[in-house]
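Problem statement: downstream parser choked on a complex file, so we are re-checking the raw output for the 2'-deoxycytidine-5'-monophosphate run. The parser issue turned out to be on our end (a line-ending mismatch), but while we're here, posting the original submission so the record is complete.
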Amino acid sequence: MSFTIAIDGPAGAGKSTIAKRASKELSFIYVDTGAMYRAIALGLLRKSVDIEDRAALAGALEEISVEIQYVDGEQRVYLNGEDVSPLIRTERVSDMTSRSSAKPQVRAKLTHLQRELAARENVLMDGRDIGTMILPDADLKIYLTASVETRAERRYLELTGKGEQCDREEIAEDIRERDYRDMHRETAPLRQAEDAILIDSSDMTIEEVVAEIIRLAKERMG
Ligand code: DC
């Protein structure tokens, strides 16, 4: 039997950085489900699909395949055989992902793939609906969040660090909008599972959060 850890939470709470480090220390496979939704969104953008047109969306999804592979321990995501990992972090893709991931047809396409991965190996999977929908029986569920202000500040520092011009209040507004969309969509909205442990990282360092997750995982693994 594999041991499964589900980490859900809003954008910018530090999920992927924390999940990457914790999975390394635990020697678990890290599954970044957001990357899979992003790859589908890129495929839809490339095909210029109107995602509000159900038939067009269904047709396009039939022609889109997503796979993940691990290269030197890093997850790579493939869209119809092409490694698109470096192409999925743009604002354009983020925006399309937030809209297309609300569509039931898009979610159905990835549910099976995600469950299959967790059945085979010890995984730490992060996303929005892992503890509530994908792995309701996960051995450990974490809901990782942080205040909008903290998340906006982190994003601001990340962008200005890359030399990009940006505005704190605009970033905060963007985060509020995406939170709203993720939490209020009809299919698999973002919410804390009843048996998930809440970690608010607003006043914690990455190391502190990682240490807490490892402590909880070891406790459960016995
Ligand atoms: O975690 P991320 O920023 O890469 O997620 C990108 C988008 O995908 C975000 O709008 C939420 C959505 N998503 C989702 O609906 N379900 C998941 N399991 C993971 C991500």
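For whoever reads this later: The mean pLDDT is 95.
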